Amino acid sequence: MQNLSLVQTKLEQSLCAEDFLRRIFLRPLVEENLEENLSLTDNFGKELKEHEFVSEFLKCKYEKALIDEIRYEFNLLFVGPRRPKALPYESTYFDYKTLFGKKTMEVRGFYEAAGLKVEDTKFDKFPDDFIGYEFQYLYFMSFNALNKISNENMDEFFEIIRQKQEFLDSHPKQWFSEFAKRCTEASNLLAWKNFGGFLNLYLEKEIIKLASFRKSLNGFKK
Q1: Are 194 and 180 spatial neighbours (Cβ–Cβ below 8 Å)?
Q2: Which of 19, 59, 67, 108 has the fewest CB atoms within 10 Å, i.e. is most exposed?
Q3: For 211, what's the count of Cα atoms within 13 Å in the CB-facing half-sphere?
Q4: For the chain, what is the radius of gyration of the CA atoms?
């Protein structure tokens, strides 16, 4: 049972990291949300927990003006009103810098297979391959995998892990590094300069982690 417990711990760490990352892009970066977001970092793996990106957000608890600066640069990097310096949509890195390209539809296929869909008010208006939605999907898959492993439903657990690994290989692995590079190069604040490194570290750790689960739990699979 030691391997099972270790896998659960690693999945919980992934879940918290993905929850933290999806919230950054899906919820307003305001003081009211800060404490709840930072509480998730308590359950990160050691390297992510001690990363400079997290340290910069922790400073916001004591430097109240910093969250406003982080939010302002967030808008410059990812929102507008001018063209964002680091577009947070996968298609723009492949489909001639346009939205709703081939990659968007591929991502939508993964969501639909998992029973997910972009909310009705934004469906076909807001790209499915927005980084916030991709982390929403990753969070959802980690959550479901934890449920399956808690019930020792190993066949369904391994299928979820397979789907998550396929998604990481087909999508985040293909564009996160370039997106991270643009964040680092275009940022003025340390928070966003360090975000790219944090994103790449998450992806690197997650790919290794998912590949290790089958080996760790080989005896539990029917």
Answers
A1: no
A2: 59
A3: 8
A4: 18
Q: How far out from the chain centre does Cα 6 lie?
A: 21
Q: Which two tokens stand for residue 182?
A: 């643009």
Q: What is the 3-state secondary structure (H, E, C) of the chain?
A: CHHHHHHHHHHHHHHHHHHHHHHHHHCCCCHHHHHHHHHHHHHCCHHHHCCHHHHHHHHCCCCHHHHHHHHHHHHHHHCCCCCCCCCCEHHHHCCCCCCCCHHHHHHHHHHHHCCCCCCCCCCCCCCCCEHHHHHHHHHHHHHHHHHHHHCCCHHHHHHHHHHHHHHHHHCHHHHHHHHHHHHHHHCCCHHHHHHHHHHHHHHHHHHHHHHHHHHHCHHHCC
Q: How many CB atoms lie within 10 A of CB 48?
A: 20
CA–CA separation, 154 and 100 (whole Å): 36
Local confidence band at 214 (pLDDT 50, 70, 90 cut-offs)? confident
Per-residue model confidence as pLDDT tens digits over 67-97: 999 999 999 999 988 889 999 999 999 877 7
pLDDT tens track for 22-63: 999 999 999 999 999 999 999 999 999 999 999 999 999 899
Residue 99 confidence (pLDDT): 83
**In angstroms, rounded to a whole number, what is the distance separating the alpha carbons of residues 195 and 184?**
7
Residue 79's alpha-carbon distances to 30, 134, 158, in angstroms, are 16, 17, 37
Q: Is-contact 217 150, C-beta < 8 A?
A: no
Question: What's the rounded mean pLDDT across residues 204-221?
Answer: 81
